[in-house]
Each structure stands twice: as C-alpha cells, then as structure tokens.
C-alpha cells in the first residue's frame, strides 16, 4: 500500500492514473498530459508500474498502459476503515455537543 500511496502522491502521476480510468493510453498520450520531458514521463510510468497501478504491453514501437484497479483496492479498504472510525467519532462528538446544549437549556 505504501508504494501505491507514494506513487499517487505526485500530481503528474495522478493525472496519468485519472487518464487511464478512461481506458488504455500510450506513453506518448500520457506524457502529453503533463509538463514533463519524455525521460521524466518514463520515470513516472516506471513508478506507477512498480507500484502495481498500471500494466504495460508492447504494441509495435509503442507501449500501451492500462490501469490495474486491483492495486487501489487495498488503499480503498484502508480508507474505508479510517472513514468508519472517524464517522463513529464524529457521531459521538455530535451526541456530546447535543447533550451539553440540553444541559445548558435545563439549567
């Protein structure tokens, strides 16, 4: 999960991942979306590949990238649990605030 979060921490890589949500794209198409040199695009794509976020397949001289949504499942599970915990805490806080208001009104 750390590798996925690290990969998604970069805004250029997030743009590439968002683009791949719409379907496959070549390295050139992904590179055209960000203000980065071709070697930089290659490094960004390597980080995404190493994190397991994208698959790559050769197509003649080009490399075609596709998103691997399963790589995001672990992050989604972690976020779901964090969200559940915070929702419980916020509900408890709301209850305490309401209880305090009732006590102030009754005094």
TrEMBL record:
Database matches in Gene3D superfamilies: Winged helix-like DNA-binding domain superfamily/Winged helix DNA-binding domain
One Gene Ontology MF term: DNA binding
Keywords of this entry: DNA-binding, Transcription, Transcription regulation
Domain HTH arsR-type residues, every copy: 1-87
Record-linked PROSITE patterns: HTH_ARSR_2
Pfam families reported in the protein's UniProt record: HTH_20
SMART domains noted in UniProt: HTH_ARSR
Protein name: Putative transcriptional regulator
PANTHER family: TRANSCRIPTIONAL REGULATOR, ARSR FAMILY, TRANSCRIPTIONAL REPRESSOR SDPR
UniProt organism field: Nostocoides japonicum T1-X7
């Amino acid at each position: 999960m750390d590798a996925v979060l690290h990969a998604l921490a970069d805004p250029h890589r997030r743009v590439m991942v968002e683009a791949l949500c719409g379907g496959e794209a070549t390295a050139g198409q992904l590179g055209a979306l960000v203000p980065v040199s071709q070697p930089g695009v290659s490094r960004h794509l390597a980080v995404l590949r190493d994190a397991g976020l994208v698959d790559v397949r050769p197509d003649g001289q080009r490399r075609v990238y596709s998103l691997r949504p399963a790589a995001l499942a672990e992050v989604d599970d972690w976020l779901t649990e964090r969200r559940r915990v915070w929702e419980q805490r916020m509900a408890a806080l709301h209850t305490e605030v309401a209880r305090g208001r009732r006590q102030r009104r009754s005094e």
